[in-house]
Description:
- By secondary structure, the chain is α/β, with parallel strands linked by helices.
- The chain has nine helices and seven strands, in the order H-E-H-E-H-H-H-E-H-E-H-E-E-H-E-H.
- Helix content is 48%, strand content 13%.
- The strands form two sheets. It has a five-stranded parallel sheet with strand order 2-3-1-4-7, sandwiched between helices. Strands 5-6 form a two-stranded antiparallel sheet.
Amino acid sequence: MSASGTEVASGRETGKNTVPGPVLLLGAPGVGKGTQAKELVKLWGVPQISTGDLLRANVAQGTPLGRAAKEIMERGDLVPDSLVDDMVAVRLGQPDTARGYILDGFPRTLVQASWLDSRVAAQTGALAVVAVDIYLNYNELLRRITGRRNCPVCQAIYNVYANPPQREGFCDVEGAALIQRADDTEQVFEERMRAYQELTAPVVEHYREQGRFAEVDGNRPIAAITAGIVAAVDLLRRAA
Ligand code: AP5
Ligand code: MG
């Protein structure tokens, strides 16, 4: 990656020519998966599939899945694999995933990873999964979680410390009053980190061992991290 900006202007470095295929964004709670996924959607023109967002939408609508997931999410534990896999299967069946998709927050267990790997392998002509792990230290994760605010209308993500809206408490795009997620407390964050270490860290190792894997430092400005992910995916796709 050039620091001068010269290479950044080319199609390869901006990712505009990349057919991304299935891209997994891995990383701890609050590391910036959702923020990065939204940037990549703009660059690649493929959908973000956030299992957290899909589950929160089910909770808000009071569906049977939402009713089953609500308390589990509020205490920071993981929703059962079969429920999440079924939800992802429905989403992956939609036609906008044909050129690829950005999975944000899935897979989160080895069972989910194995389900996804089998599903992608069974698809004729599908590109293999590539995984990008974003890493960040505990204190900065906690700061990002406790400072986060979300727009309930357009799902834009803000941070009172690092990325505040122009008008305090209101979305720049929608003007809607921003909300704080029910699980964005220090206490629930600790439980989410425990679940992450126990169940999701092995998923990171699984994809590291598979080889189509990159790590990106999350302790940088948003645009620098996006550029790092784009360069990594481009490299992994050319090597495949
Ligand atoms: P989910 O919604 O996926 O939560 P998470 O993994 O804990 O991740 P977050 O959404 O909290 O963080 P993020 O990495 O997206 O960070 P963001 O971009 O918002 O899951 C919630 C729950 O649903 C789970 O606990 C579980 O119960 C259930 N669930 C979901 N998926 C599941 C699955 N597969 N299996 C089972 N259960 C599942 O950024 C965070 C903050 O940092 C923001 O304020 C942002 O503005 C700021 N920020 C971002 N980037 C930067 C930067 N570079 N510099 C400074 N600030 C930044
Ligand atoms: Mg998220």
